[in-house]
């Protein structure tokens, strides 16, 4: 079940990665945040991981939404 969930999420996310790596220039920020998330998880700092995860998702979503609105 976990594998199928991750696979489904991956398929959904792939279409947005082109924006992240291209016109949004968000790749390095995203990679840095992923590294920090892993550090928090490895150190069992659940609260910091949750805060960063929420921020990461919201920031990326807002950036993408703003970019797409400018193109309409």
What this model shows, in words?
- The chain is mainly alpha-helical.
- It has one domain (2-71).
- It has helices at residues 2-21, 27-42, 46-71.
- Helix 2 (27-42) packs antiparallel against helix 3 (46-71).
- The relative contact order is 0.11.
Structural class computed from helices and strand pairing:
mainly alpha
Are there runs of 5+ residues with pLDDT below 50, and where? none
Count of β-strands: 0
N-end to C-end Cα span: 38 Å
Listing every helix as H and every strand as E from the N terminus to the C terminus, the arrangement reads HHH
Count of helical regions: 3
Average pLDDT, rounded to a whole number, is 87
Short account of what is shown:
This is FCD domain-containing protein. By secondary structure, this protein is mainly α.
Keywords:
single chain; 72 residues; mainly alpha; transcription regulation; DNA-binding
Strand-helix topology:
Elements: H1 2-21, H2 27-42, H3 46-71
């Amino acid at each position: 079940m976990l594998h199928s969930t991750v696979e489904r999420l991956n398929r959904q996310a792939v279409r947005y990665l082109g924006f992240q790596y291209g016109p949004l220039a968000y790749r390095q920020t995203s990679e840095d945040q992923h590294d920090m998330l892993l550090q928090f998880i490895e150190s069992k700092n659940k609260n910091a991981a949750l805060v960063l995860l929420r921020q990461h998702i919201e920031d990326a979503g807002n950036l993408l939404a703003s970019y797409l609105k400018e193109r309409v």
